């Protein structure tokens, strides 16, 4: 492939990442909250107390009779309110959906709970585009308390490695413009070396941040169940490779390597830190049509490389989280 042809394809790739730059560079907050109609748990109990017939001044030999008891006042069923708080990045916020507030997984969970007899759900979504693990910790200072939360879901960590990936693509595009082959090869090698160094640092940062994230949530919502989501591989079905000198970068394989390192940290700390794991990664591996990037390539439409979940993907995330909630409730 000629340098000009490769540069043209790279331009298509970079155009495919407006969302990535927004997410990796700490995009604007998408905080919002939806609340179910109605108040908290209510139980209105009717009474079956009979009432005596009013006394009169007329005396008769017939014995007096009480008014008949009635049972037309029925007890209203009790309703249990479940408060769900969603924390995290653009996945939690519902970035890229046609109607984020209606299609993101936290709202789907609310609708599923509302549909169950005797339950209603209050949803609060605090997803922020571009949030990293350190950014989530910093947000605790400004987040209102959510002490009434029954369940807190967390989607965080992807941006710890996404930022370095975007940097690598930018450096790759710059290197393509270098005419001298030796200098161009050196620029490729440097870009990949920095990518590996920065992603390693991002993973280490995530591991160091995780205990503080959990303690911060417990401080805000002491009685809440915490459900931490694993991170899916957005390029599971993307046949894209980049040649950086002597190194060939496979987008699928490298992405899987990075999210797997993050997921290992999530899994191994669950017991000690006291949270449950919703394995979104495993669920996405066996499904199709759940990520915008599926089937994308440099030659395809730019938006095909968007790493965010589709509406179907958000339904699947909701399924996984609800299975954790229901499984633990049954246990």
Give the SSE map:
Elements: H1 3-15, H2 18-24, E1 32-34, E2 80-88, H3 90-93, H4 100-103, H5 105-114, E3 119-127, H6 133-139, E4 151-155, H7 158-176, H8 181-220, E5 225-229, E6 241-244, E7 247-250, H9 251-273, E8 276-278, H10 280-285, H11 311-330
Provide keyphrases for this structure.
single chain, 331 residues, alpha/beta, Rossmann fold, 6-stranded mixed beta sheet, two-stranded antiparallel ribbon, 11 helices, disordered N terminus
Structure description:
With 331 residues, the chain is of the alpha/beta class. It has one domain (3-30, 77-330): SGNH hydrolase (Rossmann fold), CATH 3.40.50. It contains 11 helices and 8 strands. The protein has helices at residues 3-15, 18-24, 90-93, 100-103, 105-114, 133-139, 158-176, 181-220, 251-273, 280-285, 311-330, and strands at 32-34, 80-88, 119-127, 151-155, 225-229, 241-244, 247-250, 276-278. A 6-stranded mixed beta sheet has the order 1-3-2-4-5-8, sandwiched between helices. The longest helix is centred in the middle third of the chain and has 40 residues, at 181-220.
Question: Can I get a quick summary?
Answer:
With 331 residues, the chain is an alpha/beta fold.
Strand order of the largest sheet: 1-3-2-4-5-8
What's the number of structural domains?
1
- Give the CATH architecture: 3-Layer(aba) Sandwich
Our estimate of the beta-strand percent is 5-15%
Name the helix and strand elements from N-terminus to C-terminus, one letter apiece.
Answer: HHEEHHHEHEHHEEEHEHH
CATH topology: Rossmann fold
Secondary structure tally: strands: 8
Query: Low-confidence stretches at least 5 residues in length (pLDDT < 50)?
Result: 1-16, 18-24, 28-65
Distance between the termini: 58 Å
The top-level CATH class is Alpha Beta
């Amino acid at each position: 492939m000629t340098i000009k042809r490769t540069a043209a394809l790279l331009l298509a790739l970079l155009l495919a990442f407006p969302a990535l730059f927004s997410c990796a560079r700490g995009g604007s907050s998408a905080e919002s909250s939806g609340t179910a109609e109605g108040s908290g748990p209510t139980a209105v109990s009717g009474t079956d107390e009979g009432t005596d017939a009013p006394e009169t001044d007329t005396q008769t030999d017939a014995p007096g009779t009480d008014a008949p008891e009635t049972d037309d006042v029925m007890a209203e069923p009790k309703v249990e309110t479940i408060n769900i708080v969603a924390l995290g990045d653009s996945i939690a916020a519902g970035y890229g959906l046609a109607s984020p507030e209606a299609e993101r997984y936290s709202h789907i969970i609310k609708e599923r709970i509302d549909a169950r007899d005797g339950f209603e759900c209050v949803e609060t979504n605090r997803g922020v585009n571009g949030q990293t693990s350190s950014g989530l910790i910093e947000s605790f200072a400004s987040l209102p308390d959510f002490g009434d939360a029954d369940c807190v879901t967390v989607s965080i960590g992807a941006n710890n490695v996404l930022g370095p990936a975007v940097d690598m693509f930018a450096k790759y595009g710059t290197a393509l413009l270098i005419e001298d082959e030796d200098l161009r090869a050196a620029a490729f090698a440097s870009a990949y070396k920095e990518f590996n160094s920065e992603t390693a640092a991002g993973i280490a940062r995530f591991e160091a941040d995780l205990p503080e994230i959990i303690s911060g949530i417990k401080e805000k919502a002491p009685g809440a169940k915490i459900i931490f989501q694993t991170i899916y591989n957005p390029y599971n079905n993307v046949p894209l490779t980049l040649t950086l000198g002597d190194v060939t970068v496979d987008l699928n394989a490298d992405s899987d390597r990075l999210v797997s390192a993050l997921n290992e940290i999530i899994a191994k700390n669950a017991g000690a830190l006291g949270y449950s794991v919703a394995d979104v990664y495993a669920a996405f591996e066996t499904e199709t049509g759940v990520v915008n990037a599926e089937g994308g390539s440099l030659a395809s439409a730019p938006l095909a490389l968007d790493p965010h979940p589709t509406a179907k993907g958000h339904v699947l995330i909701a399924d996984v989280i609800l299975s954790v909630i229901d499984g633990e409730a049954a246990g």
